[in-house]
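Chain A, query sequence.
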Amino acid sequence: MKDLNAEKDWVKSWETLDEHRQNIFLFREIIDEGEDVTEDLQKEINALLVNVEALELKTMLNEADDQRPALLTINAGAGGTESQDWAQMLYRMYTRYCEQAGYSYDTVELQYGDVAGIKSASIEVSGNFAYGYLKAENGVHRLVRISPFDSNARRHTSFCSVFVVPIIDDEIEIDLNPDDVEMQRFHAGGKGGQNVNKVETGVRLIWTGKLSNGEDARVVAECQQERSQLQNREKAMVLLKSRVYNLEKEIQEAAKAQLEGTKMKNEWGSQIRSYVFHPYKMIKDHRSEYETSDIDSIMDGEINEFIKAYLMSLRE
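Chain A, predicted structure.
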């Protein structure tokens, strides 16, 4: 049914384009007959161009995992309060993006900073091609600004890492030895009323084992959004398997790149984007070279142009 719905979406997109095309021909015929419908014609042309561009971008999402939901994790870098405040700004940017894109999202893990901001956050994002689009955000995000926490008003540079992995479903089997998984319980915050303060409903799962290439790995996933420990454990297990699956996927992609004689870029540890608020205003993606001075819109979640520029750069 999922495959069928995906195919229906493609057909619907094509039918929308064809409808605009037919309207354009119709308005041109009306103009030839002497009636001025130039404004309506231009609206149809603009709508056609927008939809063609959107469909062209969608064709870039042809990997097996692109249609899956995504788990987006933000981690503050070194720098204490300054980087933790930057992490919270990114958290706001991504939740705003989800709202504008029509995606549903749940914050499955949120750790507040000691003074301000957040130390880390994990957001589960559901919707068509959620992972396909959000994978463009993988990497290190750098902020340059006058720190509001510095009494001397000095310029500070902060870093946060963003990790995006596809959330797997029953179609993919990831077998983890229960003996290799440690479960930790903690007091959760958020919804659940007084129960979350009295019972350790939050669950953290830690898997320690070997990957397919023989490398030792330690993977952590936690969930505190649900009201019961059992529900949080089930959700944490899905997230844990998704993260292990992504590590295995990276191993396969690295092996493929080696066979093709190319060197795979390490998106996980690279600085992908700089956000400069001072001494000038500029946000630049270092992979696609796309940049803008409209920092307010970007921080309000309007990051579509950055995502588009990155995905289109993969074609080059």
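Residues 191-197, 262-269 have pLDDT under 50 and may be disordered. The two ends are 34 Å apart (CA to CA).
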